[in-house]
Structures are given as C-alpha cells and as structure tokens.
Amino acid sequence: MLVDSHCHLDAAEFGDTAPQLAQQAADSDVHWIVVPAVEVANFGSVAKLAANLPNCVYALGIHPLYVPQATPDDLNHLRAAVELALADDRFVGVGEIGLDFFLPELTTDAMREKQIHFYVEQLKIAREFALPVILHVRRSQDTLLKHLRRIPVVGGIAHAFNGSEQQAHAFITLGFALGFGGAMTFTRALQIRRLASQLPLSAVVLETDSPDISPAWLHPGVNTPAQLPRIAAVLAELRGQPLAEIAAQTSSNVARVLPRLGNLMMT
C-alpha cells in the first residue's frame, strides 16, 4: 500500500478527470491521496472530492502563493471551516500553509510580512484544534522553524522538502515527516537524493504534488498520483531497500503524522 501525501487532485489542469485519476492511482496500489486546499475558494471542492472518492482525504488552508489576494476575513473563514470539518472523518489537517521566499513577487518586505502573518495565524488555528499542518517550504526553512518553535503544533508534513540536513532534523524533532516526490527522481538533484537516502526512513513520506513536480520520466508533462509507485521505486533504489519495505514504512509514517487519516487506514 502507498499513500500520496500531497496531491492537488482538484487542480484546473485535471478538469473533470479526478475520479479517473483516483481510480488509476488505486489500481496502482495508491490506497490514499491527501488533497490540500490552497485558498478559501477551493475549500468546498476539496471536501466534495474527498466525500465522493473513496481513496481521498483533504486538508484546509491558505497557500502562500494565494496570500497576495487573501483578506483578513479569509482567516476567520478558515477557522470556521476547520471547526465545522472536525465532524468529517475525511478531514485530516490544516494545509497547505507555509512560506515561499522563491518567487520574486513574494519576497518584497510587505509580502514577506503578509505571508508570515497568514502562516502564524494558521499555525494558531492548527494549535487550537490540535491538528497537524501540511507545510509549503521553499527557501523559507529557517523562518518556518522559528515560528513553529514559538507556536508548536502536533506535527505534520514538510512537503517537497529541499533544505539542509540540519534543517531536516529540526523539522523531525518538531514532529514532522518530510515529503519526497518527483524532484528526487532527477539524477542532478544531488542534495534531495542524498537526504532521501540517508535520513531515517521513519521520517520520510512520499508524494506527487500532482499536477506539479513531475518525475524525470514525465517532465515537463502533467504529474498524476498513479506515478507514486515509480517514485517509491526510486526511493527504494536510492536506499537499497525492498520496495515493499519502503511502501509499508512511508504509509505508516503518514498515518502517524496525520492521525485522522491513520484512523481511516485502520478501518
């Protein structure tokens, strides 16, 4: 069994094909797909998708790329939506949230400040409801960690991790697993491949980030959750471990850091 711990199955690139893509994933032994929201406007769509597709669950949050157009009231909407979603066993946490200091338009002083404000306020919501978070981490590891230490949450996933070994261990110490996906399949991604091969397997989860971060054999095409078994096979090769062992441990890791999904995985 495999778990795609990060997949935007409701993305516009997929049109109305989400049911077929979810079934293709299931046929490829991907038993669960975590679909994080990115803005208030798609809270309903990710929840509906999870309600209609048996191998999908969802998270609610405001992605840093959507912070420029977000308003303070969106945070109130998120808190209310999270409180309501607690009754839904398909709801697994707060995400996708975080910081992006890569795109130039997000790195002005004003936009950095706004990103940090939205990140901090969403951490507070996660802490209030004892929920894990799914983090967007792009050239922002140290700032993310600084605020996580100040506003501790129950853990979660640092998605598409691409930091240093020291930063990786800092996230692990705070109860996070690290997401590895398509980027790991490129031979030139030396740092990511080194981390994937050397970090404790108990700290690693697999993801596609579909439709983005396509693996080497698809690049630059659209990624899908059915690619996860081949991504898992790359990790198995890098670590010199059996694929079955990789699948079992990474799935167990997702169940640990997203315990509401873990409950579903036990039924």
Describe this structure in words.
The model has no long low-confidence stretch (mean pLDDT 97). The two termini are 14 Å apart. An eight-stranded parallel β-sheet has the order 1-2-3-4-5-6-7-8. Helix 3 packs parallel to helix 4. The protein has helices spanning 18-27, 43-52, 72-85, 109-128, 141-150, 165-173, 190-198, 228-239, 243-257, 259-265, and strands at residues 2-4, 30-36, 56-60, 91-100, 133-138, 156-159, 176-180, 204-206. The chain has one domain (2-240, 250-265): Metal-dependent hydrolases (TIM Barrel, Alpha-Beta Barrel). It is built from ten helices and eight strands. Helix 7 links the parallel strand 7 and strand 8 (204-206). It is of the alpha/beta class and 267 residues long.
Summarize the structure.
This protein has ten helices and eight strands. The protein is α/β, with parallel strands linked by helices.
Layout of helices and strands, plus pairs?
Layout: E1 2-4, H1 18-27, E2 30-36, H2 43-52, E3 56-60, H3 72-85, E4 91-100, H4 109-128, E5 133-138, H5 141-150, E6 156-159, H6 165-173, E7 176-180, H7 190-198, E8 204-206, H8 228-239, H9 243-257, H10 259-265
Parallel strand pairs: 1-2, 2-3, 3-4, 4-5, 5-6, 6-7, 7-8
Helix pairs in contact: 3-4, 8-9, 9-10
Strand content: 15-25%
Strand count, sense and barrel status of the largest sheet are:
8 strands, parallel
| Share of helical residues | 40-55%
- Put simply, the count of helices is 10
Instruction: Tell how many strands the DSSP assignment holds.
Output: 8
- The CATH topology is what? TIM Barrel
CATH first level: Alpha Beta
- Return the structural class: alpha/beta
What is the H-and-E element order? EHEHEHEHEHEHEHEHHH
By CATH, the superfamily comes out as: Metal-dependent hydrolases
Outline the low-pLDDT stretches.
Answer: none
- Over all CA atoms, what is the radius of gyration? 17 Å
Q: What form results from the Cα inertia axes? A: globular
Main sheet: which strands, in order across? 1-2-3-4-5-6-7-8
Mean pLDDT: 97
Number of individual domains: 1
Q: Tell me what the CATH architecture is.
A: Alpha-Beta Barrel
- Distance between the ends: 14 Å
